[in-house]
């Protein structure tokens, strides 16, 4: 009898200890870890001959990269830099620091640069004020260099302060291969007294194609209203006493020189200089699927050279012709997907599925059946080494990292998989104290 009482005390103590200090170790399976940055190949498809120094094509929504050539190489981008200026202006508008009808009197440097007829400009009159909206439209539609500098003064107070703010914003966006000196993309010495102190006169803005794609994606996703302006083909700018006719330098817009009815382009920005060549950040929304393409360093033999638009058309057509835009419904499950561990649940793990509809571009010949996914739990929902029970059916508990068997995948965030929210496929109730205790005991043997 004494022996039985002693044994009962030992068992009770063991069970209590394990309940307090935890039980089963899952060795961290299914817990979110830091992302690894997957390097892009120099050329993801050598069969596509893009005649430019660098190029990239991405899905605007997911950041999936459909094509890349030298996409990590920092190169001069000239007036494509104005996309960063536009982003900073829209950010200031949304933060209440600027208003569209707010009057801006261009500073000396901005006004002097605006008078240079060898550059793309609307002439800004000394002492005259213009609305933020007018300067913004001139910057995006006609690539007006003085107007971009006037906006930079409005946002930052000075050209230097604006560039400092833009550099911080670029870092927040995760842009890694960027140099910024001017708000308009001119070389540092070309912006008169607005040049960035301590930098050489020939210093100029540089982006990699990948970073320009990230900036373009952020611009469209954070401030989609930008497309209402970038799609404008022609507009007049009021100089105070006369008007300047502005025709958009994006000649792929409807009605312009390189428009193509099969590709309804509605943005974004060109850039041209001797060092940059012809550059173009473009976006197209075909059949409800929006792409962003970047072409850097295309041929530019004259102002009438259409090379950057021809290479962009080739790149866009390649994406739509060689990939299938594939929808994955909410509740979709995948082959070989691991279950996630559950802490103190009646079940020790739970299977997961897609928590909401998502989409992926699959190369021709690759089907949904070739997709697989790894489940990764949300560590904030974990206790010890598992999701804390109870869990509801359909509860978001982490992510699915989706890959295709015969198709390498690349994304702007540096991953090699499509990330989508994961939900539980069943309810998991919390185990009672006796079950927990028994598991504790059996785990000791």
UniProtKB/TrEMBL annotation:
Pfam families: PBP5_C, Peptidase_S11
Boundaries of every Peptidase S11 D-alanyl-D-alanine carboxypeptidase A N-terminal domain copy: 45-299
GO biological process, one term: peptidoglycan biosynthetic process
InterPro entries cross-referenced by the UniProt entry: Beta-lactam/transpept-like (IPR012338), Peniciliin-bd_prot_C_sf (IPR015956), Peptidase_S11 (IPR018044), Peptidase_S11_C (IPR012907), Peptidase_S11_C_sf (IPR037167), Peptidase_S11_N (IPR001967)
Catalytic activity field: Preferential cleavage: (Ac)2-L-Lys-D-Ala-|-D-Ala. Also transpeptidation of peptidyl-alanyl moieties that are N-acyl substituents of D-alanine
Active site: 79 (acyl-ester intermediate), 82 (proton acceptor), 143
Swiss-Prot/TrEMBL keywords: Carboxypeptidase, Cell shape, Cell wall biogenesis/degradation, Hydrolase, Peptidoglycan synthesis, Protease, Signal
Positions with a binding annotation for substrate: 269
EC identifiers of the protein: 3.4.16.4
Domain Peptidase S11 D-Ala-D-Ala carboxypeptidase A C-terminal: 325-411
Superkingdom classification of source: Bacteria
A Gene Ontology molecular function term of the record: serine-type D-Ala-D-Ala carboxypeptidase activity
Keyword Glycoprotein: no
Transmembrane segments: none
Tagged with keyword Signal: yes
Pathway(s) where this gene product acts: Cell wall biogenesis; peptidoglycan biosynthesis
Family: Belongs to the peptidase S11 family.
Protein's job: Removes C-terminal D-alanyl residues from sugar-peptide cell wall precursors.
UniProt-recorded name of the protein: serine-type D-Ala-D-Ala carboxypeptidase
Species name: Ligilactobacillus animalis
